[in-house]
Structures are given as structure tokens and as C-alpha cells.
Design goal:
four-stranded antiparallel sheet, 17 helices, 48% helix, binds nicotinamide-adenine-dinucleotide
């Protein structure tokens, strides 16, 4: 969701507050004036910050990166490579550690929004985040049993054998401390196909997203389950509702940090709490509220080569767990008037496997992040989701979304009208001055400017 860039007064006030916040890392993620630098200067700065080599810098600058031969190995019928911008979110302090966070996204103002919100959170000590063990769920669907409850009992009787089979010591994942942790049985009755027994395999996938690992385990256990139940196994597949593998992130924002030119901090706190209550109560609002959260989380997923559809599927299913779709975050005020934000969301991401180790830009993104495990990556992504949520609802609850978004949106409109280089800025200035940001108007201005240049 697009957000408003803070004005100089707001930035100054927050700077004063966040300068007091100590970080345990040698260097801070507060890169003053980063957005005003040229792209090559930004790359040089982040390379120094993260200790990137010349190859990684070349990848960021678009001189190297995913090539046709690699792309051709990744999916089917490859006919090209589709590029997206990678931005860098600054100011993040998570569990006392500074992070610069690469985000890949086509939508303007998301990167600016999370960076601003991270600065606000810094004023209250940054984000606190924690994760569950990386337990994914594999599902095995058993049909054709006479008594689904008796079949469930027979699966439970062979639970130890199933776990032993899944935890074959020769498996790589078992050698590194992963493997099956438990079995669950869920009898279901369907009006069309009749009774079915769903067997869950709870599997610790360590630093992988885990889909292939879990699918392989389900296929391995299916014949044992058929023999035990006398039924027929149909599907054997991971569940994307990975609710045993959640991340939680929270932040505390002092009301002074939220003061705007026109609105005192306590009033902004109240407006944000009211906005959050709207999302909690109304699925129509919750969908947009959560979309903002995924604006942030997906962009880090994409940057790191992770499967953002898996994240979306798990998050939205979790948001509907009560039977009614609701908000993934909660915003309240504490007794001192501070704004308290909290998010809890399933987080199936990896630092190994999938595209993480294949896509050259994903490898650079992981290096910039400096995370040592999938759990740490989850904590970063959860914090980014909460930050983007704060940026969006703060803007909505104060001056509205369009003010800050207008200039950024106008840039895309100008480019769509054929402007490039300096002309983009000139077209944007004219459209903003006229308060008329439309493709047709941009095309007229581009034509006029081209004629005047001839
Ligand atoms: P993967 O298939 O590449 O497997 C991970 C591999 O890394 C395993 O062989 C494991 O042994 C090894 N490994 C090395 N070090 C490890 C460590 N520290 N922790 C864990 N494993 C380690 O990757 P995956 O995560 O099993 O599968 C992810 C891919 O599957 C994604 O590309 C996803 O899009 C895709 N997928 C998703 C779904 C779904 O979401 N429903 C279904 C099928 C496939």
C-alpha cells in the first residue's frame, strides 16, 4: 500500500529520538540520505556495509545476474527474463541487530514506507521477533475405509513405525537435525466422496521452505498407511497452512514519534488503533489491510528467491482461522499512550533450497541480509510485514494515502507515456502542479516537450 513520505520536520523529530537507540552491531542500518544518492553510489555503500565482492556489485548493477541458460533450467518453455527493481529498506533494528533489507517489488512507495516505519519503531527500541521451530505439515488423504475413526486408530497404532521410517538416518535432512516430529489423524466426512482420513506428518525442515522434503516424506509413508488402514491413499502433499511454523513480531512506538504537522501523536495513536479495529471486524477492510502486510513480506520473499505464493496462501488461510477472514496484525495503546503493534503469521521460507541458491540476485540479497538461518529470515520478514502495515495505516489514519503516493505514482504514469531520463521529472512536476495525474495528460505533455525540443 502506498504511503506518505515524511516531511523534513517529521524526519528531524524522529532522528532526534532514534539517535538515542543503541544497536549491538558495528554499523547502523540508518543510512542518512541514502535515497538521494545515485544508484551506483547506493550499491557501493551497501557493498561496503555488507562486505559484498565485485561480482555481487555487478549483479546489483544489472551487469550480471540471472542469465538465459540458468532461467532455462528453472522453469519450462522459457522465452526470456523479466526484471524487477530491487530496493533497500533501511533503519531496521530487529532483536537488537541492524538489518538492511533488499525488497523486490514493482509498486512505488513500499520501500520508502517500511523504511520510515522502521525508523518509527527504532524510537521504541526496534522490533522484537520470534519464531516457532520450522515444522511443516504434510498431508496424506486416505479414502475407501469402512470406519474412518477405526482407521485413525490403526494409523495411531503404527505412529512409531511411521516416524522411524520418515527419520531414516541416511537422509540428509535427518543428518542435519530435521525430520518427522509427530503424526496427527483427522477424520473428515465429505458429502460427495464420503469419509476420509487425513494423516498429518509434522516435519522439521530446518533451513528449507520444505515443500519437496515434506512431499517426499508423505510419498514414503503412504504405502504403510494403506496397509494399516486397508484404504486407498490419494493425495500426498504439503499443506501451505503452515501454522506450526509461525513468526511473531512486535514494536512499541512512543506517541511523540507519530506527531505530524497537523495531528498530535496521541491522536495518531488513537486513529491507528481505530483503523486496526476496522480491519479486525470487517473482511473487506482486512483484505486490504493484509495486502499491505504482504506488500512488505512478499518483496523480501521475492528478493531472497522464496516462494511468495506459499506465504500468501498460508497467511490468508491463517487470517480466516476463526471462520471469518480478519486482520493478521493487532494495534493497541498501552497505559503510557505508546502504540503497540503485533503480528503473527505462518512463515514458510528458507535460506537453502528452491531458488535461494540458484538465482544470483537472491544470493546477493541473502548476503546483504546477513541471516544465518531460515528462522532469522522469518523474523526479518515478519518485522517488515508489521512495518509496512504501520506505514500504511499511519498514512491512512492521518493525511490519507494519496498525498505521498502521488509523485511516485506520477513517475510511473510519465514513464508509461513514453518519458525517459530528465523528461520524467519534468512531466511529473507539471502533472502534480496541475493535480491531474492521468496517462492522457502525461502523453500530451510528452508530445509538447518533444515538439519544443525540436
Ligand atoms: P529443496 O527441494 O531444494 O530441498 C532442500 C534441500 O536442501 C534438501 O535436499 C535438504 O536436504 C538440503 N539442505 C541442505 N542444508 C539444509 C538445511 N540447513 N536445512 C534444510 N535443508 C537443507 O527445497 P524445499 O525447501 O524442499 O522446496 C522448496 C521449493 O518447493 C520451492 O521452490 C517451492 O516453490 C516448491 N514447491 C512448493 C509447493 C507448495 O508450496 N505447495 C509444492 C511443491 C514445490
Amino acid at each position: 500500500m502506498p504511503v506518505h513520505y515524511p516531511n523534513q520536520q517529521e524526519i528531524g523529530r524522529i532522528n532526534l529520538m532514534t539517535n538515542k537507540t543503541q544497536s549491538s552491531k558495528k554499523h547502523s542500518s540508518r543510512l542518512a540520505g541514502f535515497y538521494q544518492r545515485s544508484l551506483p553510489d547506493r550499491v557501493a555503500q551497501v557493498a561496503q556495509w555488507a562486505g559484498l565482492d565485485a561480482g555481487a556489485e555487478a549483479t546489483l548493477l544489472g551487469m550480471t545476474g540471472l542469465n538465459s541458460a540458468q532461467a532455462d533450467q528453472m522453469i519450462e518453455n522459457v522465452i526470456g527474463i523479466y526484471a524487477l527493481p530491487m530496493g533497500l529498506a533501511t533503519n531496521f533494528l530487529i532483536n537488537g541487530k541492524d538489518y538492511l533489507i533488499p525488497m523486490v517489488i514493482e509498486e512505488p512507495s513500499v520501500v520508502a514506507g517500511v523504511s520510515f516505519a522502521a525508523k518509527l519503531a527504532r524510537a521504541g527500541g526496534g522490533f522484537n521477533a520470534s519464531t516457532d521451530d520450522p515444522i511443516m505439515i504434510g498431508q496424506i488423504q486416505v479414502l475407501g475405509v469402512d470406519n474412518v475413526y477405526a482407521a485413525a486408530g490403526r494409523v495411531w497404532d503404527i505412529r512409531d513405525q511411521l516416524l522411524a521410517e520418515a527419520n531414516d538416518p541416511s537422509l540428509m535432512i535427518v543428518k542435519i537435525g530435521g525430520g518427522a516430529r509427530d503424526i496427527e489423524v483427522r477424520p473428515l466426512i465429505d458429502t460427495v466422496v464420503g469419509p476420509m482420513l487425513i494423516v498429518h506428518v509434522l516435519y522439521n525442515v530446518r533451513d528449507a521452505m520444505g515443500a519437496n522434503t515434506v512431499n517426499t516424506a508423505c510419498e514414503r509413508l503412504a504405502p504403510m498407511i494403506e496397509r494399516a488402514t486397508g484404504g486407498r491413499v490419494n493425495l500426498r502433499i504439503l499443506s501451505n497452512l503452515s501454522d506450526h511454523r509461525k513468526v511473531r513480531a512486535s514494536c512499541t512506538i512512543p506517541p511523540e514519534a507519530l506527531t505530524t504537522e497537523t495531528t498530535p501523536g496521541p491522536q495518531v495513536v488513537q486513529a491507528i488503533v481505530e483503523a486496526a479495529a476496522f480491519a479486525e471486524a470487517d473482511p473487506y477492510r482486512a483484505a486490504t489491510h493484509n495486502k499491505g502486510i504482504f506488500n512488505g513480506m512478499d518483496a523480501v520473499c521475492i528478493a531472497t528467491g522464496n516462494d511468495w505464493r506459499a506465504l500468501e496462501a498460508g497467511g490468508h488461510a491463517y487470517a480466516a482461522r476463526s471462520g471469518r477472514y480478519s486482520s493478521l496484525s493487532v494495534w493497541t495503546a498501552d497505559g503510557s499512550g505508546n502504540l503497540i503493534g503485533h503480528i503473527e503469521v505462518p512463515m514458510a521460507v528458507g535460506t537453502v533450497g528452491g531458488a535461494t541458491g540458484v538465482h544470483p540476485s537472491a544470493k546477493v540479497a541473502l548476503k546483504i541480509l546477513g541471516v544465518s538461518s531460515a528462522r532469522e529470515l522469518s523474523e526479518v520478514i515478519g518485522s517488515v510485514g508489521l512495518a509496512q502495515n504501520l506505514a500504511a495505516i499511519r498514512a491512512l489514519a492521518t493525511e490519507g494515502i494519496q498525498r505521498g503516493h502521488m509523485t511516485l505514482h506520477a513517475r510511473q504514469v510519465a514513464m508509461a507515456a513514453g518519458a525517459s531520463g530528465d523528461m520524467v521529472t519534468r512531466v511529473v512536476k507539471m502533472m502534480v502542479a496541475e493535480n491531474n495525474i492521468q496517462l492522457e495528460r502525461a502523453q500530451e505533455i510528452v508530445t509538447q516537450l518533444r515538439e519544443s525540443e525540436q
